[in-house]
Each structure stands twice: as structure tokens, then as C-alpha cells.
What does this fold into?
Amino acid sequence: PKSPDVSYDPNRPFSAQLIYLRALLGARASTARIGRFDIAMTPKEGQSVSVSYDGLTLVGLADGKIERVTSGAGRITSTLRDPKAGAPVDFDIRIGSAQISGYDFGAYLHIVDDAAYVNGRGDGVWRQLQASASAEGISVSAGPAEFSIAKAEIGSFELRQFDTPISGILDQIMVDPKYFEKDPASAMKFGLGYLGAFRIKSYSLEGWNIKAQELDRFRMGRLAFKDFSGAGLGEFSLEGLDAAGKGNIIRVGRFS
It folds into this structure.
């Protein structure tokens, strides 16, 4: 599709993005690949963020849906200042590989685009945003603390419209990141609305290890949720927990 002409409004940055997303509903591609993606940013003095991914591949884009997106090794590094101590803290996030299947950005638009709300009200219809997503070989370090996850996986993720349109409040958040601090009532309303607007069929973490100053060890074989939404939780379970620190030991074979 032809790229739309957009006059950028600094007071409505989120709404401006929606114009391009609507145009993408008409895009088609059998495959697309980026060999390597790198970006470096300096949001503030003394802060830095860099992102890199190898082998980004998209398969089957049509009718606002993507059959599959895969990525090879990815890394995000950043340096931020500790708000209390003022000293810089280095973050390093690494992912061995990742995949998203059955992503529907038409469904996403239906949630965030005010034009999709009939008479300014949500329709209450559940729409699948993605069929599944997974990542393997995850590691995170922040100062002296480290943790790793062998595999993270999320099943069907569904959304439905909020009671009323939300792009206006998302514009406000992007313009002023402290907007919710200044307007707690709006923050509460948005939070409650989000709780009622999502549901996840399943979510799991496998092979979770944590290293920290006050821990001798922390290992968990598997942590999982089923049928999770703002309305409740079908099942929570953990398996193979082995943790020790400051003379205390916790071991759990399975808890559900």
C-alpha cells in the first residue's frame, strides 16, 4: 500500500503511529529477512542503550496477519544511573533465539484505534493477538545480580476492547511519562481496564537460575500459569525448586 501522508503532532505521537499501521493491513510479503539489526541510543547524559539482533525473518504477511517471525541471537545493553546512589548500573540482556507465531496486528489495531470503537464503546469481543511466542537462552545481568532462563513460552494471547477508547491516554503517557503519577485516578482506571482486556492461555519458564549476593543458589525447573486473566487464574504450578541463602534452604518437588 501507499504510505499515507502524516502531519506529525507532538501531542499525539501514539495516534500518528496508527495511521501507518492501518496502511500495513494491505501489505503482503511471502518472506522478508534482515541479516543484522543494530541501534544505539543516548536518552540522557550518562545513559546509553544498544540493541542488536541477528537473522530477523518474517514469513507470510497478509491481511494484517503474520504467520511467523523468528530471530537469532539478540542482545540489549544499557547503562542507567541508580536513582538512590547515583552510580551507573550496567544491564545486559541476551537471548539465544526467539519466535512469534500467528501474530494479528489487525486485532491489535482493533483494541487501540479509537475508530474501531462503535459509538465510543468497547464491543467486548475477544480477539487473538498471537497464537504463541517463545524465547530460549535468556540471560540478564544487572550489577552483581544475574539470572538465566533456558526457555520462556507463552500460548494464545487474546485481547478485547476497553470499555472506552484508549489512544488518547496512550498519547498522554508518551508525551509525559509521569502522567499517571500526576493523575492517579486515570492510572487506576487504565489499570483496571487492562486487567479486563487480556487473557493468556498458558505461560511458562523453564530452567530458571538466579545468582545474587544474598543467595547461595536458586534453581527452578519450571514455573507455569494456565488460563490467566484479570478474572482469575486456572492453575499456577512450580516444579523442582531448590534455593538456599543465609542458612535457609527451600526445596519443592512440585506445587500446584
Q: What stands out?
A: Residues 13-24 form the longest helix (12 residues). DSSP finds five helices and 14 strands in the chain. The two ends are 50 Å apart (CA to CA). The mean pLDDT is 90.
